[in-house]
Write a structure and sequence with these properties.
The structure is a single chain. The protein is an all-alpha fold and 225 residues long. The chain has one domain. It is 72% helix and 2% strand. It has 8 helices and 2 strands; from the N terminus they run H-H-H-H-H-E-E-H-H-H. The longest helix is centred in the C-terminal third of the chain and has 28 residues. The relative contact order is 0.20.
Length: 225
């Protein structure tokens, strides 16, 4: 029999929303002037390796800075939140507001075909992906889905073999993957109408959610630091 556990509503909503946002940001990265992924580093690392093989110094610098931007974003999140376990009361509001500011700045720069805008969008994804890591053993990676589909395949294989499977983990995989794909579709649709200005939507959402969460944390949980 599968193991039945429940995901808190706030975690379900937050994880789904963040995956939706990441999908939309990544779609803009592919559709804008650089045509590159911004929410994950698998393709980026491959591009860096190929640029090294070609001896293309400019591209090596670009892909290296892209990876560094994601790393700096993730490190900033680790410094602010300080915990790997998803738990209500952490300093997620600060991270979300910072992500919002990065996306607002990225929108203007990408509009001018300034590559710094790409780095800011990548840094925002690094911030977001590092903000939540696990909840009760279920992995939350909201800006890429390779690991999500790997985990889902493992759980399906185990279930077919008759091994007990934690349904919470399957639900998390479906939540993140489904919302990431939906966000990519919405991002592409929005880009067709608004171009890179579609990034203003996730920028506004993360900013509003971050401020609301920070107020909730201060007023109802009594935490200020």
């Amino acid at each position: 029999m599968p193991i039945l556990r429940q995901l808190p509503r706030w975690a379900w909503f937050g994880g789904g929303l963040l995956a939706l946002i990441a999908g939309s940001i990544n779609a803009v990265g592919y559709l804008c002037f650089r045509h590159q992924p911004v929410s994950h580093l698998t393709g980026t690392s491959t591009q860096l390796g190929m640029s090294l093989a070609r001896g293309d110094v400019g591209e090596v610098l670009h892909w290296g800075l892209t990876i560094l931007s994601f790393l700096v974003g993730a490190a900033s999140s680790g410094f602010i939140v300080q915990q790997r376990t998803l738990e209500l009361g952490r300093r997620y509001g600060v991270v979300l507001v910072l992500e919002s500011l990065l996306l607002f700045a990225a929108t203007s720069l990408i509009h001018r075909h300034n590559v710094v805008g790409i780095y800011l969008a990548v840094g925002a994804c690094g911030l977001q992906n590092a903000m939540v890591s696990t909840y009760s053993g279920a992995t939350f990676r909201t800006t890429h889905v390779s690991g999500i589909f790997t985990d889902l395949g493992i759980y399906i294989g185990q279930r077919l073999r008759g091994v007990d499977v934690d349904m919470l983990r399957i639900h998390v995989c479906l939540l993140v993957a489904g919302n990431f794909i939906a966000g990519s579709a919405l991002g592409a649709f929005g880009y067709a109408l608004m171009r890179e200005r579609v990034l203003l939507i996730p920028a506004t959402i993360t900013g509003v959610v971050g401020v609301v969460y920070a107020l909730y944390r201060h007023l109802f949980l009594g935490r200020t630091a």
